[in-house]
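User: I'm new to structure prediction. If I give you an amino acid sequence, what do you actually give back? Let's try with this one:
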Amino acid sequence: AEVDRAGKAAAAASEWWQTLLSERCGEGGDLVRNWPEHAKHPELTDHQHRGTAPMHYVMGVTSPFYIERTFSKDRKRAVWAVFLGPYTSNGDNQLGVGSGGAIAAVLDLLTANLASIYAQGATPTASLSVKMAKPATPVPGLFKAEAWVEKEENGKLYI
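Assistant: Good question. You get back a string of structure tokens that encode the predicted 3D arrangement of the chain. For your 159 residues, that looks like this:
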């Protein structure tokens, strides 16, 4: 509950996220706010962050993340505002830098969810490679996560 309060507040205060929502979501925009409840019905965007998959590490009831989502109307791109809560830090005794494992878990969910709504069916992750270009700081904090369908080849999606 505290992660959700802090995450919602961070998203509401984030200039980049609020600009994206106001400029690209809604009438005439290329993005849809929230996320489909089911991949086969992308028009039903009533996904509930904690309620849909209560046991899931990234979005379940005890998740250390808070996520607000958008996806493109053609279902080929997703942009998320991800709040990394204090229990995503890699510090043993202090907060500061996001854990690579926590970040990889979010990216796994992001890419799998995008593939699922693009293909309108189940799409398990076959391979995920994450290269940390720079530290994710500050934690707790709000970060932009973005993924897109790069290509579809021989029945495989590359995101």
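You can read the tokens as a compact description of the fold. Here is one thing that stands out. The two ends are 32 Å apart (CA to CA).
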